[in-house]
Amino acid sequence: MSNAVSALQGAAFSDGIAEVRELGLRGMITLRGDLSDKKLIKAVKAVAGAMPEQRKIALKGDAGAAWMSLDELLLMVPHSDALGTVETLNSALNGTHFLAANVSDARAVFEVSGPYARDVMAKLAPVDFAPDAFEMGMFRRSRMAQVPAAFWMSDEDAFRVVCFRSVGEYMFDLLSVAAQTGSEVDVF
Amino acid sequence: MSTRLKTGGRFTDGGAQLSFDFNGKKLKGVEGDTLASALLANDQMMVGRSFKYHRPRGIVASGGEEPNALFNMGGTDDFEPNQRATVTELFDGLKITSQNHWPSLEFDIGAINKHLSRFLPAGFYYKMFIHPRPLWKHVYEPFIRQSAGLGKAPRAQDRDPDTYEHFYHFTDVMVVGGGVAGLQAAYAAALTGVKVLLVEQTAHWGGRAPVDGGEVDGLPVGNYVDNLVAELSAMDNVTMRTRMMGAGVYDHGYVLGYERLRDHQPAEIGPRHRLWRIRAAQIVTATGAIERPLSFAGNDVPGVMLAGAVRDYAVNFGVSIGDRTVVVTNNDDAYRTAITLKGLGLDVPCIIDARAGGGGALAEDAKALGIRVENGKAIAKVKGTKRVTGVSLCVQAGEGAELEEIACDAVAMSGGWSPVVHLWSHCGGKLIWDEQQSHFRPDAERPPMGATGEGFVSVAGSANGHLQLAELIGDAHGAGLAAGRAAGGNAAKATIPEGAPTSENPVEPVWLMPQGAGIKLRSKTWLDYQNDVKVSDVQLAAQEGFESVEHAKRYTTLGMATDQGKLSNINGLAVLSDALGQPIPQTGTTTFRPPYTPISMGAIGGEARGKVFQPLRKTPLYEWSDTHGSDWEPVGAWRRPFAYLQPGESVHDAVNREVKNTRENLGLLDASTLGKLIVKGPDAGKFLDMLYTNMMSTLKVGKCRYGLMCSENGFLIDDGVVARLDEETFLCHTTTGGADTIHGHMEEWLQTEWWDWNVYVANVTEQFAQIAVVGPNARKVLEKLGGMDVSKEALAFMEWADGTIGGFDARVFRISFSGELSYEIAVPASQGLAFWEALIEAGEEFGAMPYGTETLHILRAEKGFIMIGDETDGTVIPQDLNLHWALSKKKEDYLGKRAHQRSHMADTDRWKLVGLETVDKSVLPDGAYAVEEGVNANGQRNMFGRVTSTYYSANLERGIAMGLVKNGPDRMGEVIEFPKTDGTIIKAKIVDPVIYDPEGAKQNV
Description:
The complex is a heterodimer.
Chain A: E1 12-13, E2 19-22, E3 27-32, H1 38-48, E4 57-60, E5 63-69, E6 72-77, H2 82-92, E7 99-102, E8 107-113, H3 117-124, E9 139-144, E10 147-155, E11 158-164, H4 168-178
Antiparallel strand pairs in A: 1-2, 2-8, 3-6, 3-7, 4-5, 5-6, 8-11, 9-10, 10-11
Helix pairs in contact in A: 1-2
Chain B: E1 3-4, E2 17-22, E3 25-30, H1 35-41, E4 46-49, E5 56-58, E6 70-73, E7 80-84, E8 95-98, H2 112-115, H3 124-129, H4 133-147, E9 164-176, H5 180-191, E10 196-199, H6 209-212, E11 215-216, E12 219-220, H7 221-233, E13 238-241, E14 244-250, E15 254-260, E16 273-285, E17 289-291, E18 304-306, H8 307-317, E19 319-320, E20 325-329, H9 334-343, E21 351-353, H10 361-368, E22 373-375, E23 377-383, E24 390-395, E25 404-407, E26 410-414, E27 417-419, H11 422-426, E28 431-434, E29 439-442, E30 457-459, H12 469-486, H13 519-522, E31 526-528, E32 533-534, H14 535-543, H15 549-556, H16 569-580, H17 584-587, H18 601-605, H19 622-626, E33 630-635, E34 638-644, H20 651-664, E35 666-670, E36 675-680, H21 684-691, E37 704-710, E38 716-726, E39 729-734, H22 738-753, E40 760-763, E41 768-774, H23 778-785, E42 800-805, E43 808-813, E44 822-828, H24 832-843, E45 848-850, H25 853-862, H26 903-906, E46 911-918, E47 929-935, E48 941-953, E49 958-966, E50 975-979, E51 985-991
Parallel strand pairs in B: 2-8, 9-10, 9-16, 10-13, 16-30, 18-26, 20-21, 20-26, 21-22, 35-45
Antiparallel strand pairs in B: 1-19, 2-3, 4-5, 6-7, 6-8, 11-12, 14-15, 15-16, 17-27, 23-24, 24-25, 28-29, 31-32, 33-34, 35-41, 36-39, 36-40, 37-38, 38-39, 41-44, 42-43, 43-44, 46-49, 46-51, 47-48, 48-49, 50-51
């Protein structure tokens, strides 16, 4: 619907050592099931383009699939395709034990970009962001400061961050504070 | 007097002139100064008053171990107490005031205490102020608070303008300490190819070595350090940080690093401190050693300083402590101070060496410079009060009879060096007593152990007891290589650096000077400067039976001040050992706890302040509510509208209006925070039958059922409506607070007990905005918006349906928590605001008004519906709430079933839910207890019930309440008494909790 709005409606911060931007609505589907099942792998490839390895994200254009746990994936599609994708999965996986749920609106998505994006991320998440430790294609389900978050790299110096919609404002403020002027750590 | 020398200093050469403010006085310093060196350059020998006796105190040390030079720093918002001058880098405009004096530093009333010191021995407060008890609170404590205490607390209205942050860092090897040993260890570790983090708490690399001198690989050690720093800087795998202290070592290689980014340049923009949260595979502590004071009478008079510090101020800052400095020592190192001072053209009237045999090669050098050396001698006492005027010489073996008085204005003392073992010890590294060097040093055989049972901390350099450069440099190199290899590095080929050997005579333990000092001298012989603990206090503690070092510490307060006894601990426990007649290792040390020196509260809090102090959870309707009068109520991390205030309304008025409007017209509630868990799989029904006390597997698709959840101990933990979406899929609504915990509860049972059941759970709480449309006009507004049939025939009470309403994709539940005709409608969260606005607009003609949580509570209380968290508190079982009907008798098992059979759970005397109707129509206080005659075993009034929910009902125009009362349901009509805190009593009649529409006709239309 045209009156659908994201948590922060595209808020942006660019007065610091990195740019922070809310990316608006994204289609996301929680898929739980047997990740080794051929039928499931086929269905995932059909809707998201690729099947991710453990702790990885497989991206293909606007679509993608991220490894959330031993039996859970996060599938990413355009927002308007989310419900349709759930339907597709439901019919493709009919007869197997699985759960597909549209969680697009339960999320807020941000991009942190710039040469010091790693510094900003490493201030908030207990994860090794050294360039040789966190690379394109990796995916972490962790926390940022006091809220759960998942993240991956969308470019050489850009990160995507996903959190719950209700704490979208907190996440935006958090990233903006961590990106404040004069706060470069300069270790990466 | 102390002054700036013309010769210049390593750190201050070429520095710009700075001005700073001390107690309102404008003083000058130089860029590169610490606050301590700048004060000394201005002849400010006295810097504060002591804690207990208000004795004049001067600067004793040159580093983080300094006990005396603590200041109130800054003005109002940037005010901070207890700032240590020796580690505070001077900047232009710095403003400090001295602490613990009244009315002024020079003249202090509290100094009268020193004449009373005979009456203020160890444990004085415990002994004198314990009786009579009330006097402590009203007389003694206020008096002590006034006369004692170091820094002032910041004012409550002040707000720190600075920002702080955390930083997560991962490394293979972390080296703590950037002296020559730390640099060498880091270099060796880096050669193995692993990632290395090297941190140094001061602004300079090299530590003491450039001051103390010596040669490595044929180079003066200062040049060797410069070369090492250059090589390390060029290595890609090495991260180097100055002004960063290794504050604490914890399990699993976790280290806290405290980086001070803006303390020396407060005008720069950016965070002030950064707390590094580091994971290191291997940690090398190259933390150096701290010089010990000697215990002689008057060792706290301003002008008495550690010998190494005297040398530091002279070499690093070009500051002399006095024109005539007497050196007193039990080891060779202090001779370096005498030689350094002499070289700067200053007078050293005498070196007093307590050792009968005197010193080695350095002593010969000193004598060659014409310095008088007195072996086997001691200081009987220091002359002077606010500054040193001389010392009285005596023999160390005697009782202090003065041989002669030596005039001087400074005393440089050295009682030997103690390795800084703190970081080694934080996580369980053990120590051994080194007889030869009279100090505790790390026991390499017993390091802190990691998960594999291998040590993860090693130690290098003087921190390892290697006080000579020649030994230290090789030790550090070896420690670095070993750490690198243990962290996964390659064997590295590197030549071991060689230090030029020196020949020193061993230190001799001197714990009291002179050895036979009488009580008069011992009562003026300080161990702990900051907490005013003397040799006589520790001896008294031993005499009174405080044999454990931990007990003696607490009784005397030795080592309990902000310096945590860095100078005093070893001396104190040596005195204690002597008093107890046992060897020092048997006494042992007190526990070393992080942080090494105090770190700022700001750094600990990190970014969590102001708007990101805590996450606030906001529903899609938050902004709308905020601009429409919402009076916010915290519900967990959520903010929910308590009521929507119209202009001029009080909260009470608003609630009453909302209550009446919802019963009479149409109320709209933001119920988005309710937990929504999808449970799916062939075993979903079986699973829910175990989780809920009632039967869920028999629920028909399209229907809803209210359910209760108990913990395995039988206590009620959650409730909510379950909807069956299809054969395999259920949607479980939980309470707001239960969304995450019940999700976790389900996952735990599925993952640990019923892992072979085919069930998946997904938490979709935030996917939906859920709006309750409540009241007699509820159906009208939905029919007006149109899109699906919401008639009783199409959608009966306790049914749900998918469809569209007003063009919105909606799932509509016909459930009611109010007793009214009610629909709960879930739409995608992104459309929640638009849907809400459509309802408000369409509902105008039907009297639609939003209502908040208080109205929700009142409406449910009128219906006698329980609320998790009000009627339950973790000790309440469904039977207490008369919910037997929801406890399945058909099911073989469910969580809580067996627990309910325990004797206490089945007890007929449990407090049970009833309604309470006040006789005078007033509102009962929440949590009030019903009392009866008599007292219990604890002398408390007997109680037999309590209020769990209480409100003013605008519909009934009186107070309504629910409560748990012993045998309550059997006592209908009885009037019971609830005393209030003001002494009055409210009488209430026990009634049925269901007051409004007991037949349920209104919700089922």
